[in-house]
Amino acid sequence: MGRRHLGPGGRVHARGRAVPVLTAILPRSHRGRVLAAGALLDSAATGLYLAVATLYFVGYVGIAARSVGVALGLANVCGLLVPMPVARLTRRLGIGRVYIGLLVLRGVGMAGYVLVHGYWRYLVVTCFFTAASRAGLPLLQVLVGQLAGEEDDRTRTMASLRTVNNIGLSAGFIMAAGAQLLHSGVAYRVLFALGGLAFVAVSMVTATAIRGVGSATLPAAKRARRPRTVYTDRRFITVAAANSVLLLHDSMLFILIPLWVVQRCGLSPTVSSSLLVLNTVITVLLQVRAARYAKGARATLRLLRWAVVALAASSIFLGAAGHGSADWVLVILLAVAVILLTVGENLQAVAGWELSFLMSDPDQRPQYLSLFSLGYSGQLVVGPVLMTAVVLPWGIPGLLLMTFLFVLAAAVTSMAAAGYPADREEGQAAAENEEEVRT
């Protein structure tokens, strides 16, 4: 496939043919594009929730900000506990049914916020909504693997969905801003109700996309070489743990950098908002293009190492931005830091999808990917504390600590994943040789 580049008029050219930019970022298959439409609606509803929930319950319902923080922390703990039991449920009910059911439950949870008038209801609904959301993430990756099949299409489809998610989140933020201008509790409750309906609509769209899709199974000779359960697959668990450390870049972006802008640089919070917009724009432009470089374990590990280089460089530029410099210098340093962090974030995301899929047992893929997804929930619990209690107060030494953690996690991943796909290919070859002997 020819290398693509942006040409005149903002269109992408491939082998002499002009292809709209929108086509370039969408999945290639019809099923994938239907799934992307659902992802756009899903992320728009999620954007609404992220933008208005805390402000509404603190400002209109009257729940203390600290209590909201405790509820979110407990909800993230629920997000850690639920994915594995739900993954086991897929063996009895099927991945598609469970995933669609989780979408409906997310809709019920978001619409349930309309009925919240006190702390305890808020706590219950938030835990319910968060648990359903986290349990669905790994199942979506399994469904994409079944839909796409081919390695290149699988990773590209996941990258496309993440790109669409960023677009949807931005749309949700904009709609939320419009409701906030009304300064009305009723407007917020209408948004919650619309968000609930949106998730139900996503469930119907997803059902259309996955209709008739079956799951892959492993030949007996190959299956015998695998650990009996994901809990005994030490190399996979090691990679999953290392991935949770790499995901701390998320807390750096959404927690550390906004605080760094205000407290360390003395700049306006609007600078932080602009940097988040920059992150979103780069992700939309970069994510799908990055996916083309994750083909096989060796290429994926190479991509992961480049991700760590970008994350380390980001820490250097962020550390250089501090009091004593002109505002325009600080803004440039912060922008470069966010650009590098965004590059590292996108490369790491692609590498994580590919490695988790390559190293998982097809017969137990929901369980494998659900365990792998716990890293995201884990960093949501650990990351905010690490950023606010260690990295921000320490300053440059704290950023050096983050760089060390990123490098260590990449090194551990490389050692744990080395030879792993080769073992799987060797098992496949053995099965094929056995079949040839029989015939």
Explain the overall architecture:
By secondary structure, this protein is an all-alpha fold. It folds into two domains: 18-215, MFS general substrate transporter like domains (Growth Hormone, Chain: A), CATH 1.20.1250.20; 219-439, MFS general substrate transporter like domains (Growth Hormone, Chain: A, Up-down Bundle). 80% of the residues lie in helices and 2% in strands. The protein is built from 17 helices and three strands. A three-stranded antiparallel beta sheet has the order 1-2-3. The longest helix has 32 residues, at 327-358. It starts with a strand and ends with a helix. The model is unreliable at 1-19, 215-224 and 422-439 (pLDDT under 50).
Quick structural summary:
This protein has 439 residues and is mainly alpha-helical. Helices cover 80% and strands 2% of the residues. It has 2 domains: 18-215, MFS general substrate transporter like domains (Growth Hormone, Chain: A); 219-439, Growth Hormone, Chain: A (Up-down Bundle).
User: Strands of the biggest beta sheet: in what spatial order?
Assistant: 1-2-3
Question: How many alpha or pi helices?
Answer: 17
Domain module tally: 2
Q: CATH class of the largest domain, please?
A: Mainly Alpha
Give the C-alpha Rg: 22 Å
Which labels suit this protein?
single chain; 439 residues; mainly alpha; Growth Hormone, Chain: A; 17 helices; 3 strands; 2% strand
